[in-house]
Design goal:
- The longest helix has 36 residues.
- The chain has 4 helices and no strands.
- The chain is an all-alpha fold and 128 residues long.
- Helix 2 packs antiparallel against helix 3 and helix 3 packs antiparallel against helix 4.
């Protein structure tokens, strides 16, 4: 069986993909409190990266680490939704998938915190 949505090409495909992506962001923002919290954290951190970063590499690392948290949270939410679509029943494989996805979010948050702590430490060391 062929997927009827896979036949789109060119600007029509791009327009549909953009609409689905924006729908996904809206769904995550409205339905996931963790995504909302991380979104507002990123809304503060990304502009702050331009103040704290000394060159484009530091700015990219600082801003990119904040955006990475959002990306991983979106993937986590997608995994949780897919599992919940199948069943709300407690199952070892469902738990494993959700736990692993949650661990990915934790690691992205720790990475973001470490990058920001290192940059702040370097900036404060220069001031002292």
């Amino acid at each position: 069986m062929t997927n009827p949505h896979k036949g789109r090409t060119g600007l029509v495909r791009i327009a549909h993909a953009l609409r689905h992506s924006l729908d996904g962001l809206r769904t995550a923002y409205l339905g996931e409190s963790a995504f909302r919290q991380e979104f507002w954290l990123a809304a503060v951190l990304v502009p702050a990266a331009f103040w704290l970063g000394r060159d484009w590499v530091e700015i990219a690392l600082l801003a990119g680490s904040a955006v990475l948290v959002l990306i991983v949270e979106l993937l986590n939410s997608g995994i949780e939704a897919a599992i919940d679509r199948v069943s709300y029943e407690v199952h070892e494989l469902s738990k494993r998938a959700k736990d692993v996805a949650s661990a990915a979010v934790l690691l992205s948050l720790l990475l973001c915190a470490a990058i920001w702590a290192g940059a702040l430490h370097a900036r404060l060391a220069d001031l002292l």
